[in-house]
Amino acid sequence: MEELKAAGLTVHRISRGSSNNFSNDYSGKQRKLYLRSRIETPIDKADIIWDTKSFNTVILFPLFHELSEKVLSLFSKSQLVFLDPSGFVRGLGEKNKDGLYPLIPSPWSNIEKFIERVDILKLSHEDLAGIKFTPNTKTDEAKCQQLVGMGFPLVILTRSERPTVVVGKHLKLTKVPALQVHEVDSAGAGETFGVAFVYQYFRTKDPIQSARFANICAGLKVSGQWNP
C-alpha cells in the first residue's frame, strides 16, 4: 500500500479479521492455485464509505467470493464497470496434507445479479465451466454470444495462446490473436490483460484495438519480459 501511495494513488483499506490468501504450485505442467485462508465476510456496499461518484471506470477482480453484488449499486449507468468473475466460479476441494484447499470449478450462482450492471465481462476459458449455458451451446464463440444475449453488453474471452474472443451487443464476434511467447509464469496474466484493456478502451472506445493492446501486455507479463 505504501508503494501505491508513493506513486500518487489514493488508497483505501477495508479491514477484516482474515483475508483471502493463496499459494501457487508450479510442480506440474500447469500452475495450480490453492487457498490458505479466506475472508471472513465479503466486502459489502456499507464497507465503501468514500465517494464513488467521481469514478469514471470501475474494475472488479474478485479472487474468491470476497465481493458482494450489492457493491454494484454504488455505481451509476454513466460509469464503466468491468468485471472478471473468476472469484465467483471457484469452489474448494478437500484440504490437502499441507492444510491448503485446491480451487475447483463451481457454479456462478448469482450471475443474474450482475446482468445489466456490468458493461464489460472478461472471462478466461476456465471460467466458462462455472456458467450454465443452454444444452446445445458447445463452442466458446456460442457461449460468449449467449452471454451477450443474457444482458452483458461486451464479452471478452481470453484463452491463453489461442485467440481472444471479443463480441458485443453492437459488435460482431472477432478473434484477436494472442502474443505468442514462451510462458514463464502465468500468474497475473488475467489482471494484466484486464487493466490494459480498460486503459486502452477508456482512451479509444475501440474493443478490438483494446484487446490487441491487452494481449501484448499479458504476453509480456507471462513471458517475464515485463513486471507491471
UniProtKB/TrEMBL annotation:
Pfam families: PfkB (PF00294)
Source organism superkingdom: Bacteria
GO molecular function: kinase activity
Keyword Transferase: yes
Keywords from the UniProt entry: Kinase, Transferase
All copies of domain Carbohydrate kinase PfkB, residue ranges: 109-223
Cross-referenced Gene3D superfamilies: 3.40.1190.20
Stated name of the protein: Carbohydrate kinase PfkB domain-containing protein
Organism lineage: Bacteria, Candidatus Amesiibacteriota
